[in-house]
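Sequence only, no structure available. Ideas?
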Amino acid sequence: MPVTDPRDAILIAARDRPRADAAEAGYATIRALTATDFSDAALADAVALCVAEGLLRDPVRLEQGALQCYWRAELTPAGVEAARAVQHLSSCPRMRVSTSSLAASKDVDTRIRGHDAGGCDGNDVGPARSV
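Reply:
I predicted one. Tokens follow.
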């Protein structure tokens, strides 16, 4: 299922820890990793939202001994769980919804367990549900 939310694209791509010399190059990497065409502005807004929600560390870094900053998408522990939820639920035909609200949820594990307990086998193409 294609990624339709820039925030979901950030969470999915950040699992690969993309690194670039500048944010724009980082956004290009995210687009390549997720096969999307979101604008730099949409991805910048999504990164800011993920940072504000505690799902992504501040992407601008200056490593010890470095002469310049670089851009890197790195998930926090909460972001790792949110990315797992987004990846799983975006690929499940039973859960054809935008997962942004789920990724921000404090009970991501509970919702995934509840979904999995519902017998997700990846082949169930029932009606789309809201989470």
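The first strand starts at residue 19 and ends at 20.
Hope that gets you unstuck.
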